[in-house]
Amino acid sequence: MSKVKTVFITTLFFFFSVASLYAEDVVKIGIVDLQKIFEESSAGKLVRSEINKKGKEMEADLKSKGGEIEELKKKLEREAAVMSREQRETKEREIEIKILDIKRLKGRYNDELLKLQNTKLESMKKDIFDVVQDMGKKGGYLLIIEKLGVLYSPNTIDVTEELIKQYNDRFAKQ
Question: Is residue 17 one of the residues assigned to a domain?
């Protein structure tokens, strides 16, 4: 009976020691908020300022062209009484064409801004992905996922601030 007891206790001890070894090897998971990185990182701020600058340039161009149209309308109102009907209709058509041109230009500018933004953000995503890969390998993470698809996670696994710091360090070296 004592031999059975000894084998049982040894087996029990073995299972508890193995279980404790597995319990010490905790799985590391990280959550990253990409939107926060785009807003707070040095590269994200630079991209935003470039896009805003380009947008303001485009807006100023549209505003100047709109001013030209307003001048043409005022000129037409002043001279309408002395113009023939054909001249007035020709001037009105010119104004309508210019208005359509501005609308098309505005659409083209919007497309250009959107394309510029997407290009810059895709480039940033590639750089961020590289930093996440390094961070995951060096930090012993099993998984680092984007916060967008996560319904719940404790703040303790959010590695966004550390990622921003590493990304800024890498961006400063470029």
Answer: no
Residue 98 within any structural domain of the chain: yes
CA distance 4 to 22: 27
Residue-wise pLDDT tens digits, 94-150: 999 999 999 999 999 999 999 999 999 999 999 999 999 999 999 999 999 999 888
Query: Considering the chain, what percentage of its residues have pLDDT values greater than 90?
Result: 67
The dihedral through the CA atoms of 59, 61, 62, 63 has a sign that is positive
- Contact between 171 and 37 under an 8 Å Cβ cutoff? The reply is no
The pTM of the full predicted model, rounded to 2 decimals, is: 0.70
- Residue 150 covered by a domain: yes
Residue 16 included in any domain: no
Cα–Cα distance for residue pair 11/17, rounded to 1 Å: 10
Residues linked to residue 31 through DSSP beta bridges, in sequence order: 145, 158
Query: Residue 35: which pLDDT band, with cuts at 50, 70 and 90?
Result: very high
Q: Is 26 helix (H, G, I), strand (E, B) or coil?
A: coil
Structural domains of the chain, count: 1
Q: 123 is in which domain, residue-wise? A: 23-173
How many whole angstroms separate alpha carbon 46 and alpha carbon 121?
Answer: 11
